[in-house]
Amino acid sequence: MKNEEISIKTKKHLSKTLKKLMLKKPLSKITISEIVRSADVNRKTFYYHFESINELFKWTLEEEAVHVVKNLDVKKDYKKAIEFVIKYIETNNDILNCAYDSMGREGLKEFFYDDFYEIVEKLVETIVEKMDEVVENDFKDFLAKMYAGAIANMIIDYFSEKKNIDTQKIVNYIMIVIGSSIKASIEAYVKEINEAYEKIKSL
C-alpha cells in the first residue's frame, strides 16, 4: 500500500472515531487524547495528519459531502448537488447539531461558505454562458457570495431547528428560486449596463 493510501486510510479512521465521539458529547468537549485512545493511534500520528480537532472535523465534512458535490457536474445538473447536500444533512443531523452547539452559527457557517461559493460560482458562470451575455466578474462574484451565504444559512437552519425535512420539497424550492432569480438578476444587470451605455452615446 502506498504512503498516500495509508494516509487517507488513517484520516478516515480518525474521522470515523471523531464522529462516534460526537454522538456522545459536544465537539468542544472532545480532546485529542480521547480521539487517539479510541482510534488506537498515538498523538504523533494525529498531528502528522491534522493540526487540530477542528481541522479533522472540516476534513470530515469535505470528504463526505463537499468533495462529492464538487465532483458532480454542476453545470449540467445542479439538482443532484442540491439533493445530495439535503440528504447529507438528514443522515448526519446529530453530528452537525453537535458541531453547531460547540462552534455556534458563524463558526459552522465558515465551514460551509467557501465550498458552496465554488459550487454557486460554477452555476452563475453556466447561466451567463447560456444567456450569451457579457457580465463583469465583480457582479458574478457578488451573486456567488450572496447565494453561497444564503445556502449556508439555510442548511444550518434546517438541522439546528431539529425539524423533519421534506427533501423533495426543499430541493424544488431551491431549484425554483436559484434558477429564476440568478437569471433575473443578470437580465436586470445587463439592462442597466445597456441603458447607461446608450446615455453615454447620446451625450
UniProtKB/TrEMBL annotation:
DNA-binding region: 31-50
Pfam (any one): TetR_C_8
Protein keywords: DNA-binding
SUPFAM superfamilies, per database record: Homeodomain-like
Keyword DNA-binding: yes
Residues covered by the HTH tetR-type domain: 8-68
Protein name: TetR family transcriptional regulator
